[in-house]
Amino acid sequence: MRNALALEVALNVQQELESRWDEADRLRRLQVDRARYESELARRRFLRVDPDNRLVAASLEAEWNSKLHALSEAEQNYERQCQADQLRISTVQREQVLTLATNFPKLWNDPSTADRERKRMVRLLIEDVTIRKGEQVQLDVRFRGGMSKTLILPRPLSYCESHIQNPAMVAEMDHLLDDYNYADVARILNEKGFKTGDGLPLRSPAVGYVRKAY
To answer: Are 81 and 31 members of one domain?
Structure first.
């Protein structure tokens, strides 16, 4: 399954590259069309000129020749770029991309792979994720291409569950809160050597958090 998913990523990357090449091809064709249009305008202006007006006719003929030259260059550039693009998406390159796909786990775990690239890989790989929270967390992952997978994960602990407070401190705090404000309770508990669940000295906000939690 891992190789299949990596293959899915590789194919999506290839499709994205081909889409970019198609867009570049469209822009180059627009340049050729523009050059052809300007050449046609120059031709029409030259044909409409009075032959007896030799100076103007010579100027318009020179402009027409210039536009024809620009058109020829645009067409040649278009052909060169088309050939280059065809080489890029050749069979050899496709095989290289698919071979690279089998190294997807290695690429993902490579320390030199930036987080933004990992995010891009995930976007290419996953269509959507549905999360259901109960006693456990269920993740329904739908991959591009139709494949799906369900993951069952333990429910994450709440803040209080992951930062268990000293029962003796909680009991002492409960007693002190009958007569003292948060700041005084924190001072007294610190003097008695109590710490928060994180091992930090108590302050007023921490007393408030513990009071609400317990």
So the answer is: yes
Q: Do 92 and 61 share a structural domain?
A: yes
pLDDT of residue 145: 65
Closest among 10, 182, 187 to 107, alpha carbons compared: 10
Q: Same domain, yes or no, for 11 and 63?
A: yes
CA distance 14 to 16: 5
* Angle in degrees, CA 154, 164, 196, rounded to 5: 140
pTM of the predicted model, to two decimals?
0.37
Tell whether 40 and 77 lie within a shared domain: yes
Helix, strand and coil percent figures for the chain, each rounded to 5: 65, 10, 20
Q: How confident is the model at residue 4 (pLDDT cuts 50, 70, 90)?
A: very low
Q: Sort residue 145 into left (φ over 0), alpha (ψ -120 to 50) or beta.
A: left
Query: Hey, what are 155's tokens?
Result: 């429910």
Helix (H, G, I), strand (E, B) or coil at 163: coil
Q: Residue 150: what are its φ and ψ, rounded to 5°? A: -110, 130
For 18, other C-beta atoms within 10 Å of its C-beta total: 13
Q: How many domains does one find in the chain?
A: 3
> Strand pairing partners for 131?
139
Q: Is 193 left (phi over 0), alpha (psi -120 to 50) or beta?
A: left
Using alpha carbons, select from 1, 4, 3, 10 the residue that is nearest to residue 124.
10
